[in-house]
Amino acid sequence: MSPAQRHHRSELITGLRALAAFLDSHPKVPVPRYGTVRVAVHTNYDTDAATEAQAIAEVARIAALLGTTPTAENGHHVAGKAFGSVRYEAILITRAAMERRAARDSYRDAIALDEIEGV
Questions:
Q1: What is the pLDDT of residue 93?
Q2: 60 in helix, strand or coil?
Q3: Which letter, b or e, does each residue of 72-111 get, where b requires 16 or more Cβ atoms within 10 Å of its Cβ?
Q4: In the chain, N or C terminus with fewer CB closer than 10 Å?
Q5: How far is it, in rounded angstroms, from Cα 47 to Cα 44?
Q6: Are 69 and 63 in contact (CB under 8 A)?
Q7: Mean pLDDT (the chain, rounded)
Q8: 97 with 76: CB under 8 angstroms?
Q9: Beta strand spans in 10-118 (E)
């Protein structure tokens, strides 16, 4: 790990602890009532992976570190571990999956739904 990476990691951890301490000492500040707060590592950007295959391998490597099994569905490779309502995830979305999504979204402006009365 480079000095810059160590520094960034330290700042992130310090920031998370500061947020937790702040929320703990300010009970009137709301927190999410539903759902999970996620810390997401995108292995194609947040690691040294140079190829999509390496980024997928990073998801598997991180899953092993977390003691979990990665999942792969529709081009989404995910490894995660929950800490109460906070979840750490390592994610890789393949280029093919992103291209499929872009193709579906390209029709968005071509479809006009009739307005529903009262909405």
A1: 95
A2: helix
A3: eeebebbbbeeeeeeebbbbbbbeeeeeeeeeeeeeeeee
A4: C
A5: 6
A6: yes
A7: 91
A8: yes
A9: 37-42, 71-73, 76-83, 86-93
Cross-strand bridge partners of residue 40 = 89
* Sequence letter at residue 36: T
- Model pTM greater than 0.85? no
Q: Could you tell me if 45 and 59 are in contact, meaning their C-beta atoms sit under 8 angstroms apart?
A: no
pLDDT digits 0-9 by tens, 62-88: 999 999 999 999 999 999 999 999 999
What single-letter DSSP state applies at residue 34?
A: S
Q: Mean pLDDT across the stretch 24-48?
A: 93
Residue spans of the domains in the chain: they are 1-31, 35-108
